[in-house]
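Milestone 3.1: sequence recovery, worked example.
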């Protein structure tokens, strides 16, 4: 199994990024929490990875820190939670915030994440209770400097990323329209949209 990748960031388009490792481009899917810590394209980068093997594809997932990967792996063990939902959880909350949600047994907060219904949220809380202390002791996420290369297409890139995370177009439009600040990067737009969605 591939445990981590270290190379140069070749491309990033949430939720996908590509890392050039010795001339080989590895394509990964990553949560927004990882994107927030990515350097600019062309800069050195290192990520922890997890490989998911399906009948129709081998998909590599990337994480900015070991604590994110541990939580992702723990979530995959829960019935009804696949990689897409696990990425959604990591995109909508930090590891610490998620663990606090589990400790508080706040199922309503989890249901705000696309793809998570009431039953799945309750199952996540029940099955994650025993893992909270172990995950809380994991090393904090170590991210590099955030790449803030703003382009005129930042809003459309943010729209595409939120679609990939499972949000519906009308909701995305509402969330992005609520961000009344010009010049924001794609990742900052997504961060604010996700915060707004969590408060809704």
């Amino acid at each position: 199994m591939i445990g981590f990748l270290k190379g140069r960031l070749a491309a990033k388009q949430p939720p996908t990024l590509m890392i050039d490792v010795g001339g080989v481009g590895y394509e990964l899917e990553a949560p927004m929490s990882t994107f927030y810590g990515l350097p600019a394209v062309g800069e050195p980068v290192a990520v922890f990875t997890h490989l998911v093997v399906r009948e129709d594809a081998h998909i590599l997932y990337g994480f900015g820190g070991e604590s994110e990967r541990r939580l992702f792996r723990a979530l995959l063990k829960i019935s009804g939670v696949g990689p897409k939902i696990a990425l959604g959880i990591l995109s909508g909350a930090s590891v610490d915030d998620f663990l606090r949600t589990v400790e508080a047994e706040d199922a309503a907060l989890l249901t705000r994440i696309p793809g998570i219904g009431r039953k799945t949220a309750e199952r996540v809380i029940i099955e994650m209770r025993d893992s909270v202390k172990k995950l809380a002791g994991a090393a904090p996420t170590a991210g590099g400097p955030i790449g803030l290369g703003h382009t005129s297409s930042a809003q459309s890139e943010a729209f595409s990323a939120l679609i990939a995370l499972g949000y519906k177009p009308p909701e995305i439009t509402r969330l992005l329209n609520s961000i009344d600040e010009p010049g924001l990067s794609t990742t900052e737009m997504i961060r604010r949209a996700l915060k707004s969605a969590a408060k809704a």
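Strands lie at 4-13, 16-21, 24-29, 44-53, 58-63. The radius of gyration is 16 Å.
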